[in-house]
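[User] Once you have settled down, look closely at the record that follows, and write a paragraph about the fold.
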Amino acid sequence: MKIAVIGASGKAGSLIVDEAIARGHEVTAFVRNASKVKNNKAFVFESDLFDLKPEDLEGYDSVVDAFGFFGDDQSVHVTSLNHIANLIATTPTRLLVVGGAGSLYADEELTTQLMDTEGFPVAYLPMASNMGEALKQLRMRSDVKWTYISPAADFRADGERTGSYTLAGEMLTLNSKGESTISYADYAIAMVDEIEHAQHIQERISVVSK
């Protein structure tokens, strides 16, 4: 398959690139700085995300939005996802989003999101709320074949690659140890599995370690 990974030099994006290439897929890393792409088997497209045009993403089976932003204006999570979605709207290309955990629900009635619960870190609220708004707007689109994949609450950049995970849905899910955790490496496995099998189009899913 032909896969584009936007934000491919980040920790999550780079592992998704590695996982997809290891499985024999043709991967293009979309980055602002080509020197930051470490996998020499990846094609590289150097550009700012907001400068991308529809023709830049033509011909891909899937586009992965692994763009991450940690500055002051967290609304860029909304505008960036909208921009990417607009680029591939009405095309056969799928959009898979490296999402956040803050918008997962803490109750079976799906009324209370994790970011609205007591004890949620205040420092992460701007990011969580904007990523939640981006998902909300994505849900209203029928012109894009999207899948939004939320990690567990404890998303571990340097966590172990165990090779397994548990797939869940809209609720925050705990593993056998009563924890909500997933490594970036195992998340990358889940992402490429979904790219290959296309089982959750127009859905938000979540993943947690076993």
